Amino acid sequence: MTPIITTEELSVTFARRRLSDRLLGLSPPPEFNILDKVSLALMPGETLGLVGESGSGKTTLARTMLGLNRASEGEIRFEGRPVKTQPDFRMVRRKSAMMFQDPVASLSPRQKVGALLTEPFVIRRMAMHDRKATAKSLLAQVGLPASFVERYPHELSGGQARRVGVARALALKPSLLIADEPTAGLDVSVQGDILNLIAELKEELAFASMIVTHNLAMVRHVSDRLAIMYLGRLVETGPTQDVFDAPLHPYTASLIKSEPVPDPRRRRESLAIKGEIPSVFRRPQGCEFHTRCPVARELCRAATPSYRALSGNRTVRCHFPLENRGQEPEVLNSAFANSRGKKHDQVEYRST
Amino acid sequence: MSSVAELGASIPDRQRFPRLRAMMSDPVIAIAVLLVAGFFITAAFAPWIAPYSPTKIDVLNKLQPPSAAHWFGTDHLGRDLLSRVIYGARTALMIAIVSVAIAGVIGMLLGLIAGYGPRWLDGILVLTFDSLNSLPMIMFALAIITVMGAGTGTLILVIAMTSFPSYARLIRAQTLALKNSDYIVAERLLDASPPRILFVHLLPNVIGPLIILLSMDIPVVIMVEAGLSFLGLGVRPPTPSWGSILYDGYTSIRSAPYMVIFGGLPLVLATLGFTFLGEGLRDYLDPRMKVGRPA
Amino acid sequence: MTASLTVENLSVRYRTPHGSVHALRHVNMEARPGEVIGIVGESGCGKSTLVTALANLLPANASVDGSIRYGALDLTGLDERHRRALRGDEIALVGQDPMTAFNPVLTIGDQLIDFQHHRKDIGRADKKNRIADMLAKVGISDADRRMANYPHELSGGMRQRVAIAAALLTDPGLLIADEPTTALDVTMEAQIIHLLRELRREYNGVIIVVSHHLGVIAELCDRVYVMYAGEVVESGDVDAIFHDARHPYTRALLACDPARFHERLERLPTIPGSLPSLTQLPVGCVYAPRCADCFEPCPVHPPPVVRLSADHAVSCHGARA
User: Fold this and answer.
1) pTM of the entire predicted model
2) How far is B212 from chain C (nearest CA, A)?
3) CA of C109: how far to CAs of A174, C143, C165, in Å?
């Protein structure tokens, strides 16, 4: 099967020029890798979770895939064909859609919802017999009343704006959806709604999706495969459940352990990771994670690890990958078995 | 333009109405609106309002003090001062509005292009704006008038040329701030054409401050017109203008001080009216100023 | 000073052009020195109004009923001068975005010295030493270098540490942390949680942690108040709330947290319906329209507060003591 989109050794560099350099052109400006040789493939119908902290380059990767940033090296392929020129990217954008982190800010503030929903058709010159009817059917698809066509973005709640964002992204039935923090700023009782909606529409429209997020608790329920980024590089990829059960990269393990556990009986006594992600302007030598790595050794400071493909469709970029040491502590659900049984009748699971 | 209606100043629709009402409940703004509306009505209906022709010379009745026949008195040629002030409003508003509108449109277009366009174009445009801004207005006006001759057209040209750079800079700054916002990026992902992004998505969001600035610049332009006319470089006699009334008044200030008073009063009122209106628009058009629940 | 905080029957209304908004209704709360109190709820539950009321920062269009007693003082009846003195001295607030808490044109050091302006008894050098000690306590070792930095030169996590140090410099009896980790990445969040847990060992005052994140509440707090639409629907020991929740809203909220489930769920649980309007509240229980266990009295009568144990109280018709 041909992947929907692949990146091969994709790099994005950023030149920090000082004014004197720019005027005199004396020395070539120093270059910094925001993305460094990222290779990733997304299969049709698959949901990939792209996970990383702020500054890891995950949003840059998403934007570069759609041609918003220029790659300095590497190649992007869409449905098997290389994407190089602007017309190539236009074709990619025609068949893909992006959801933004801030749902209200990604809607043009002086346009009504109706106009925003039909705009993709107008711009792409797609046949649409009746603007109002099209807008209303899109609203119905995401579970919003038809009267919303008359609303302005600032009159929507976060969850409603998110739904409008979904409708707009999926209006032209894309084959790829990139969702940047699709639940940021939403209450827990609403974030399930949005994710379930995306899952339902995914079944109906059969698109591949990439969910860019730092929310591990959420992404484990919605993604098939995970890709973990650190400082512009992929550090680990693999099937979601396997990565959670036995992370191979120490960074992945620390991320999983850092997530607060909603159970006062299982408070963490020790910190899994200290410090914070360094700036790309001061990328550590060797393995970029060695400054914070709990198991770093001499080799990590000296040499950059390369990708290792392991069995079970997993890859890791680490000199000393963990071997099933990152086993999950005993399953939380058992502690809740009692209360969970009751919850089924109080909480709607939105099953179809 | 639809954006003007959306600013709530002119068309009170269902959503904007509370904001307009709140605005009008401020007495200063209500007075400003009355003053500005008064000037527009005066200018528009001058031939019906004015008791005499503004250019009818009646030397026998020159320099008459205010009376029942001539409420504001007469000038040194016996022309009715009230009529000249009324027709002067026409001249002042026409020149101010036409020149500010021309400057506003040019400034808006160039500002959008500079803010959204490629960097080299931005550089050239900013250099142009700054060069024009660095010319002293009066010197520039004198030079142009020497070349082209005094007159209404020249005046409008001079004012538009000297004021559009500041409008362009304002729009450019606003555009730069918004060009990387999520909704513009979202439009680019849809491959919306640059004109569509500029006029449908950016313009309505950057024009608010420009309208306020334009409103506050109208009195400045009225003053400039009066000043140049006072110097004899503005509108040519016998066209009535507040500046020329003032000039005429100064020559006979000892015998007929009321000419300066009645020539200056409308200038003061117009300045106050437009300035307060601009301030009011600034306070009430600010999108962060929401009528409704506390955050 | 360390004293208990007692909130009794606190109601806050905002007068607006659209009618009166009942942002808080009959809130009761108690906090003893040395306790970490958690306030949890979703947007619109009234937790920010409660924080502003506690910090004495309510806007002019708010009207307050009931009392907030801190030791012997009633905070609702104070004049502006006393309020300000209390805010600088006894009550400290750590916000969600530490960037806005600092003046961007002054160095961290200058601002931290300024925070101690009420300490007339000690000189500038002593104040600097106190700052260095406090920064060390919040995990910043190179205090001298950091004090010379401007706020924008620090990372988000570092700024939050400095904000906590700033709050503690005044020796407050009441420390309110409003969504202290929401703006941070998960590894930094874990570190700030760890820091707050370390600090409470030597801190004797009341700490109030406001969060929508159940994990943060579970990690940090001793007792928890669950809020919904301006009311406290359930309160109790953190273990009781997370393991023996009685209010249907608390249970639904817990069930929605995806961090609770380690197996992949095909459908994530949600709470159907939406928050009632705070201008036109339902007559009976505020949660009745969304409640799966709703029965006859719920939409008609406000629910009683049922005390299940000394600490555990729930306001629900369905709860039996």
Assistant:
1) 0.82
2) 26
3) 53, 9, 11
